[in-house]
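Hi everyone, sorry if this is the wrong subforum. Our group has a chain we'd like a structural model of before ordering constructs, and none of us has done structure prediction before. Sequence below.
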Amino acid sequence: DLIYCVAPLQVLMVEGLRKRGAAAKADTPTKATASKVTPPALETTESKYRKVLTRTITGFWIIVFFTGIILSDHAISGLFTISLQVLVFKEITALRYVAAKEKNLKYFRLLNWFFLLASLFYYYGKQAIKILPLAQFSILSRSHLAISFGLYCIGFILFILTLQPGLYKYQFGHLTWTLMTLLLFVVQANFMISNIYTGLIWFLLPCAVIVCNDIMAYFCGFFLGHKFFERPLMTLSPNKTWEGFIGATFWTLLFAFFFSSFLSSFEWMVCPKGDTAPFMPLHCPRDPIFDLQAYYLPADVSAVTMPLLGPSWDHVTVRPIQLHALVIALFGSLIAPFGGFYASGIKRAYKVKDFNNLFPGHGGVTDRTDCQYIMGFFMYVYLHTFVLPESYEADDLLRALLLLSLPEQQIVYQKLGDAIAAAKLNITASI
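Answer:
Right subforum, don't worry. Here is the predicted structure as tokens:
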């Protein structure tokens, strides 16, 4: 009886060993297939370098395209910025479209785009109307503010009329989402367009600073990431590293210092657009901020530099724009990246990797420009606070003059006439 019980077990054990041996033999690569087997670690490394190559090629063509925009005309650069506003707005609002579709919300997209178009009309409508040659459009220019307010009222009323029972909380949340998107992207981009017409250098330099910081953060993080600091830079972006952040700051400061000097040698970059016709060369009196100036070192510093480097090292000769560029680079390295963290938070909340797949290896327009808007806003504030002299509009000056008494107006008239005559004499003498 014992033999009859053990025999089947022996058969099962032998069969199991035979199958295990066959499986092991199948897993062992033969000479013909050994070269095709790639270790997982090697596959990961190849995948990483393939992504780097894709990002590099795409980034190169983005820079080439952007350079062409800059070299074309200020108006083209402005239209390019407006198109970015529209594309970013589309990508941001599209994140909530699926949920809105599931809730069967009426006029969801219509309201989104109405608020966007109303905002664009408020910021750019008056300038667009002035370009139109027909006289009947002049009334639109005079009534621009009233029309903008009317559009706001229409949007506000339409939103109230589309409220649906049971969806109030979601709809008010979405209205806040739309208004915040307009504030953070459309409103801030308006300051970038103002920078363009003040001088292309005030648009290109901050944009280039962000691009440089992004590139160097990626490569410093790629090659040095987690080798000195184990913790990620931000939990919102686990791929961001301290090594990338610190390395990018150093290279961005260096880049901004020399790139600003390079740009200041071109009139196309430093001259305001003014009333110059489109696609025409620019000429303007050169601002001293773009010329070389000597800055004398403190006595304690020169006491060290002169014995080591020579007697001429009691001062340094740089352009003032280069010193401003260091401040711009610091903001672009320390503060502007939080625009990217904000975008990362949105992607984490909606469980998406990128806002779009327009640019291979980079994502969508929002993924590429998330830091640019706060940077452009900063550039406008810094430019009008610390760089440009205080300026006044002609209409504001005229209104102030009309408030003066008649004798005071006559004094201003006489002095203004003398100043204009002297300016004409200087122009004639220079010719």
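For your construct planning: The radius of gyration is 32 Å. Strands lie at 232-234, 237-241, 293-296, 315-318.
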